[in-house]
Structure prediction request, 264 residues.
Amino acid sequence: MSTGTRTGDFTPRPGAAPLPRMIAAQAALETRMLLRNGEQLLLTVVIPTLLLVLFSTVDVIDLPGSGGEARVDFLAPGVLALAVLSTAFTGQAISTGFERRYGVLKRLGVSPLPRWGLMTAKTLSVLVIEVLQLVLLTAVALLLGWSPQGGPLGALPVLALLVLGTAAFSGLGLLMAGTLRAEATLAAANLVFLLLLVGGGVIVPLEKFGAAQSVLQFLPVSALSDGLREVLQHGAGTPWADLGILAVWAAAGLGAAARFFRWE
Prediction:
């Protein structure tokens, strides 16, 4: 005699989750790992913030403008560019390089998550960290007297610059992480970070480098910081030349990373 009670089906049904859910879960994991890494936080948050406060309040080097507010108007866009560089290039190159060395990428490469999905998740985690950086640095700059120009119409050029800058630095970082040994990536990524900090127009104006300016202006961090200054400091329209430079670096970096990246 039937009691009307249905027997539950507890048979395992193995299978991959939907692709968007897998990418979102991996992106959340990557973000948590970055936020828990003290060295990464030092590189991506502490150093840009300290540089912004130090050079805005102390007359260490000769910068455009005579007052503290004028100095921060010049420095804030450059430090925003530095934040993108530190996260999308240096931090991503080092973390991915050691993941490759320890076999993490090799194991993830045979999981249901496709390799392009893993790269997408890493890119999403970079964007999340960048948003946090930009919010923090913007708040600090405003407290120091920053008066960004451009108004609402400047939001789209700024967004385009940040997106292309992230793509360019991500491609270069992944290229380095996927072709060099982890120790070499650690040394090279930090060295490039320091060189671009000094010679990329972030803190020191490119005009101070004399004839070398004609070459340095084509660096991705120079194009990013210069484009941000054109909009946020001078209230200019879309900086097409700087966007073009970043687009070339993004295409070259991502293309080379896709071609030469080794997973083990």
In short: The radius of gyration is 22 Å. The mean pLDDT is 86. The first helix runs from residue 19 to 36. The chain has one domain: 19-260.
